[in-house]
Amino acid sequence: MNEAAQKVSELPVARLPRDTLQERVFRQLSDLILDGEIAPGQLVKIQALAEAFGVSAMPVREALKRLTAAKALTVVSGRSIGIPPLSVDRLDDLRRVRIEIESIAAEWATPNIGDDGIKALKDQLSRMESATAAGDVKGYLRANRTFHFIVYGAAGSESLLSIIESLWLQISPYFNLLHGSGNYSASNEQHEAMLNAIHAGDKSALKAAVRADIDGAYDILTGLLD
Prior knowledge:
Shape: globular
Oligomer: single chain
Distance between the termini: 37 Å
C-alpha cells in the first residue's frame, strides 16, 4: 500500500451505500476537513479516497469539485488533493467575517440552549481539556468543532449555519498548526467563558468570548504565516 493510501486508510471513514453517493462523499469529506483530519501539507490520492469510501473515483471527483470551488481543497496534481495555502490577506478576511457571523449565531443561540445543550457543551469542553493534556490534536479538533457547532446550531438558522460551515471548511485545517503554541489551553479558557455566558444568558459576554477565541487563533496563525 502506498503512503497516501495508508494515510487515508487511517482516517475515520466508513464505506458508503450507493444511493446519493456524491452527496454522501461530499458530506464525509467535509466532515474530515472540518475535524482537521486532513492537515495542511498532507497530500491525499483521489483513488485512495475512493477505495477508502468503497466507491468509484467519479463521485469523489464530483465532491472534490464542490470543495475546490468552496476553497476548502485544492488539486495538487491530476490525482492528488490537499489543503489550499493560506495567505495573510485571506486569513484577515476570514477573521473579519467569522467574528461578525459567528457572533451573530452565538447571540441568536443564547436563549435556545437549555440544560441538555449546556450538558453537551460541558462534555465537549471536558474532551478538549483531556485532549490538550494528552497532546491529542485530532481529538481536540473534533471536540472543538462539535462544541462550536452545538452553539451555532442552536441559533435556529440553516442559512447562518451553512455560512459558518463554509468559513470553517477554509480555516479549520489550519487549527492543526496551533498545537504546541499554547493556543489549545487558551482556547479552552474562552470555551469555558462561552459556557458560563450561555448559562447566565449573557449575550454580550458570549460574543466577547467568541471573538477572543477567533482572535487567539488568528494571532498565532499570522505569526506562523509571516
